[in-house]
Specification:
This protein is an alpha/beta fold. The protein has helices at residues 4-13, 16-27, 44-59, 104-119, 146-151, 157-161, 171-180, 207-210, 249-264, 303-320, 341-353, 369-372, 399-416, and strands at 63-66, 72-76, 86-91, 128-133, 186-187, 196-202, 215-221, 223-232, 236-237, 272-274, 278-281, 287-288, 291-300, 325-334, 337-338, 358-363, 378-383. The chain folds into two domains: 9-222 and 336-417, Zn peptidases (Aminopeptidase, 3-Layer(aba) Sandwich), CATH 3.40.630.10; 223-334, 2-Layer Sandwich (Alpha-Beta Plaits), CATH 3.30.70. The protein contains 13 helices and 17 strands. Strand 3, helix 4 (104-119) and strand 4 (128-133) form a beta-alpha-beta unit. The structure holds (2S)-amino(hydroxy)ethanoic acid and manganese (II) ion (2 copies). The site of one manganese (II) ion has 4 residues, from loops.
Length: 418
């Protein structure tokens, strides 16, 4: 067991300026003019971010490798090379109008924790590995959490690689292009044992900031179901076609959405119902729409309620489609997750040892930790972000809070790795 001194050493060796500098260097990759970040999964910007992290890791003497779905692993050796490693990490891809901290913070805080262990001269029995999971956001390729879902066996590799983006490029082709730029990168097998997993992330909600707390111990993640809806009507002339003879895919989609809102939006405002993508074809002002495609993101903390609400989507869509045809496909489903108490106890204990006040809270946002929880004892740490704003260019967090989270993460990882 590492004595208190060495664990304290890890936290004390966390360097706020170094952490902030790396975060800002990463934010420059895919930077938007409005201060946000647009770094699509498996894009050249993502490749650039990967090589930035790999470069920092190699400079610190860590082994770097990738796996068949492109997850990036940075390994700090332990005394027992055969012991199952402790993992930490998050994701490098962002939303199209993303911020500088969603995902990036968990990767850079994890790197900072490993760097601090080096600076403090700490040796751990188990290896500690930092992971940047492929395609957590699911904005370009669906489903999201693709890398962690394949790693944990929740999604077949071939299914993931067959995902197609809006330009018709497959994840397989995009990944090959990224790996072509990393000829020196070692490839490791998809399966691997994990002793425990801890992910640091900004809260993406207002609770910690409102309560003036620098840290959250995350107790779990709400459930989430994604659907793709396709409404098929018939193109017609906007000027000559009477309403009675139209099969207007937009008007049908409009009726479907109205019906879904009536059924799914609750008074208590607990259910989260989002239509983030809505495409009308052919998209000409004077042609009656022939086809509409839209996505549904449906979330709820209660498993039975999420099942009940989600199972209504297809029947309701069918009943409101009128003369048009409609297909509803569920593209991902993750049940609510409760994190492992032993890991949360280690994290709370680490916070106490670092003198950091905290509270427990659930996560409204999805994370790779949701998949890791099925494979190994898993926990998460949150740090506050301004106004709880995320998936928005204005996303921001204070350097001191980011360093505090990295200190508690370092403490917790050292304890878990002994
Ligand atoms: O959608 C989510 O909850 C995550 O931020 N990707
Ligand atoms: Mn995230
Ligand atoms: Mn996100």
């Amino acid at each position: 067991m590492a004595d208190g001194h060495t664990e304290q050493g890890a936290a004390a060796a966390v360097d706020e300026g170094r952490l902030w500098g790396r975060l800002m260097a990463l934010a420059a990759v895919g930077a938007r003019p409005d201060g946000g970040v647009d770094r699509p999964a498996l894009s050249m910007q993502d490749a650039q971010a990967r090589s930035l992290v790999a470069g920092w890791a190699r400079d610190l003497g860590f082994a770097v490798a990738t796996d068949p779905i492109g997850n990036l692993f940075v390994r700090r050796a332990g005394r027992d090379p055969d012991a199952a490693p402790v993992l930490t990490g998050s994701h490098l891809d962002t939303q199209p109008m993303g911020g500088r901290f969603d995902g990036a913070y968990g990767v850079i805080a994890g790197l900072e924790a490993l760097h601090a262990m080096n600076d403090a001269g700490i040796s751990t029995r188990r290896p500690v590995e930092l992971v940047a999971w492929t395609n957590e956001e699911g904005a370009r390729f669906q489903p999201g959490c693709m890398g962690s879902a394949v790693f944990t066996g929740a999604l077949a590799l071939e299914t993931a690689l067959a995902a197609v983006d809006r330009d018709g490029m497959t994840a397989r082709e995009a990944l090959a292009a990224v790996l072509a730029g990393e000829p020196e990168m070692a490839i490791r097998p998809a399966d691997a044992a994990v002793h425990a997993y801890v992910e640091a992330h900004i809260e993406q909600g207002p609770v910690l900031e409102e309560e003036g707390l620098p840290l959250g111990i995350v107790t779990g993640i709400q459930g989430c179901r994604w659907f793709a809806v396709e409404v098929t009507g018939e193109a017609a002339h906007a000027g000559t076609t009477p309403r009675a003879r139209r099969r207007d895919a937009f008007m049908a989609a409009h009726a479907i959405v109205a019906e879904l809102r009536r059924a799914l939006e609750d008074e208590a405002d607990v259910t989260r119902f989002t239509i983030g993508r809505f495409e009308v074809e052919p998209g000409s002002p004077n042609t009656v729409p022939a086809r509409v495609f839209f996505t549904i993101d449906l979330r709820h903390p209660d498993a039975a309620r999420l099942t009940d609400l989600g199972d209504r989507v297809a029947p309701l869509a069918g009943s409101a489609a009128g003369g048009c045809a409609v297909t509803v496909t569920q593209t991902s489903a993750s049940a609510p997750v409760v994190f492992a108490d032993p890991v949360l106890r280690v994290l709370r204990d680490a916070a106490v040892r670092c003198g950091v006040p905290f509270r427990d809270l659930p996560s409204g946002a999805g994370h790779d930790a949701g998949y890791l929880a099925a494979m190994a004892p898993t926990g998460m740490l949150f740090v506050p972000c301004a106004g709880g704003v995320s998936h928005h260019p204005a996303e921001s967090a204070a350097p001191a809070d980011l360093a505090t989270g990295a200190r508690v993460l370092a403490e917790g990882l050292v304890r878990l790795a002994e």
